[in-house]
Amino acid sequence: MNMHGATSNYVIQPTAIPALPVQGTDKLFPVHRVYCVGRNYAAHAVEMGHDPNKEPPFFFQKNPDNLDTSGEFPYPPASNDVHYEIEMVVALKSGGTDIPVEKAMDCVYGYGIGLDMTRRDLQGKAKEMGRPWEVGKAFEASGPCTPLVPASAIGHPTQGAIWLDVNGERKQTGDLNQMIWKVPEMISYLSGLFTLMPGDVILSGTPAGVGAVTRGDVLRGHVDGVGDIEVRVV
Q: What is the domain-level CATH number for residue 55?
């Protein structure tokens, strides 16, 4: 958002800056961009029909205001096959271009837990036709998320369980150490493609076991060292 003038200079009222709460405080983390790394756990790459050993990391984006901390996920229109994908969220306090791997963690403000909700049928059609994924990935409330926990409080989680239950049944399970591209590598690689900025958020990939949701489902997820998330499909 261009904030170079008084609000009265805008021809329409600007929308609010998307933000995530910081756990245990009344502070807000302003969200600039949302980058999602695809197929970053080998077993998930396999279940999606890909060889995890043959490709560099790739990214797609959600919109900043797709992130939602309400605890409810409204089932979206135009789809009959909406999937959950639990991910660790990485929030950046600084950025730049061509950031060396060994300097990348200096950019991290903190962590959260998110769900990359996906209209899989629409994504599948887009893939078949060689089209972008936004209709499958970047719709309203498609990024249920927890408040952020500062790295100053928890450090930088590099291993530990990541899992998701649907209606009390374990569906996804993995370990952060199974990420093909680790957090500093993601940040460094991304900074070669984009100018990373304070407020950027990275969804770091999902373990195997993705599947569909229906209205009324309760999703409960966990990332060791970060916390828990609970989302109801409405």
A: 3.90.850.10
What's the start-to-end Cα distance of the chain, in Å?
A: 31
The Cα 64–Cα 76 span in angstroms is 17
The DSSP call for residue 161 is E
Query: Structural domain tally of the chain?
Result: 1
Contact 216, 167 (CB under 8 A): no
DSSP line for 197-219: -TT-EEE----S--EE--TT-EE
| Residue 73, burial from CB neighbour count under 10 angstroms (0-12, 13-18, 19+) | buried
Of residues 3 and 183, more confidently modeled = 183
CA dihedral 102, 103, 104, 109 (to 10 degrees): 130
Can you tell me the distance from the alpha carbon of 68 to that of 31, in angstroms, rounded to the nearest whole number?
A: 12
Rounded to two decimals, the pTM is 0.93
Model confidence at 26: pLDDT above 50:
yes
Q: pLDDT band at residue 2, thresholds of 50, 70 and 90? A: very low
pLDDT tens per residue, range 140-197 = 999 999 999 999 999 999 999 999 999 999 999 999 999 999 999 999 999 999 999 9
The predicted model gives 214-228 an average pLDDT of: 98
Contact of 179 with 204, CB cutoff 8 Å: yes
Mean pLDDT of the chain: 94
> Do the domain assignments include residue 5?
no
Helix, strand, or coil (residue 90): strand
Segments forming the whole domain that contains residue 225: 18-233
Does 110 reside within a domain?
yes
Q: Which residue has the tokens 């929030």?
A: 91
